[in-house]
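Input record, target 12 of the design panel.
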């Protein structure tokens, strides 16, 4: 019989989730199904790497294993230990052969029996400050601003490799690391990574909902969040038109401000003042 502590733990883990996970509708599922999803999510490495073909993270993969009978061996960074743990949770019969973990491009570490861990490092002299890697990081481990050198906090990096593809100058390298983690240390780290990812999702959701934010949506997770937020907010046609109009006005304003900073022009200043008034009325 499931203990009260276990029930409470499952309840806490699967409530107040970021809006990205609303489509999973987890809180409406039977308690035993929620428990399985929670336990699988807890044993996943929480790198949010998308190598399991779930770009929105570990929890959707855990749900798909339980609800859609998706193969339980697709967690690449977790390797065979995680595959074996999930097989036990979903109660693979003793007569069934446990699946082999999805292969990794990195060699298997002899101690952990998982693929060798990697961390991303920016060659700072080659960085052009394009900012494209920043939104790709699921745990906000990259800092930097436009046209300035970026830095990756190695201690926060999950090794998900998601920052590699967006980099237009190929200035991000992956370096292998060696370490030994106890079971309790790994559990603590995974929970920290999960919380950082959820914090990232909530921050991005707030940015997308901010009408003054003109930064473009550039990652798949941001696109999904944008869709989820739009559906939940039930934006009216008038609001949508105003949002588009405001974005166009801000673009024109920025262009004029840049031109005027180089060379004063009376007619352009008048145009700028008129656009700013129009924007304030939206």
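The sequence produced for target 12 reads:
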């Amino acid at each position: 019989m499931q203990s009260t502590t276990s029930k409470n733990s499952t309840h806490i883990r699967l409530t107040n989730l970021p809006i990205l996970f609303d489509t999973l509708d987890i809180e409406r599922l039977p308690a035993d199904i929620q428990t399985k999803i929670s336990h699988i999510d807890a044993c996943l490495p929480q790198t949010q790497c998308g190598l399991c073909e779930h770009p929105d993270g570990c929890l959707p993969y855990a749900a798909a294993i339980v609800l859609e009978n998706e193969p339980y061996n697709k967690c690449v960074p977790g390797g065979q230990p995680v595959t074996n743990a999930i097989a036990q949770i979903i109660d693979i019969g003793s007569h069934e052969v446990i699946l082999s973990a999805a292969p990794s491009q990195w060699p298997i570490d002899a101690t952990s029996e998982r693929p060798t861990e990697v961390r991303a490092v920016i060659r700072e002299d080659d960085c052009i400050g394009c900012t494209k890697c920043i939104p790709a990081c699921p745990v906000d481990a990259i800092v930097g601003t436009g046209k300035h050198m970026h830095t990756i906090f190695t201690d926060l990096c999950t090794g998900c490799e998601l920052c590699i593809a967006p980099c237009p100058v190929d200035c991000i390298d992956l370096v292998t690391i060696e370490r030994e983690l106890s079971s309790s240390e790994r559990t603590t780290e995974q929970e920290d990574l999960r919380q950082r990812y959820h914090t990232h999702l909530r921050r991005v959701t707030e940015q997308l909902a901010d009408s003054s934010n003109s930064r473009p949506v550039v990652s798949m997770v941001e696109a999904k969040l944008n869709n989820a937020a739009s559906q939940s907010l039930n934006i009216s046609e008038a609001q949508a038109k105003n949002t588009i109009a405001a974005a166009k006005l801000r673009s024109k304003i920025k262009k004029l401000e840049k031109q005027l900073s180089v060379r004063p022009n009376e007619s352009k200043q008048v145009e700028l003042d008129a656009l700013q008034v129009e924007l304030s009325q939206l």
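Confidence is low (pLDDT under 50) at residues 1-5, 229-235.
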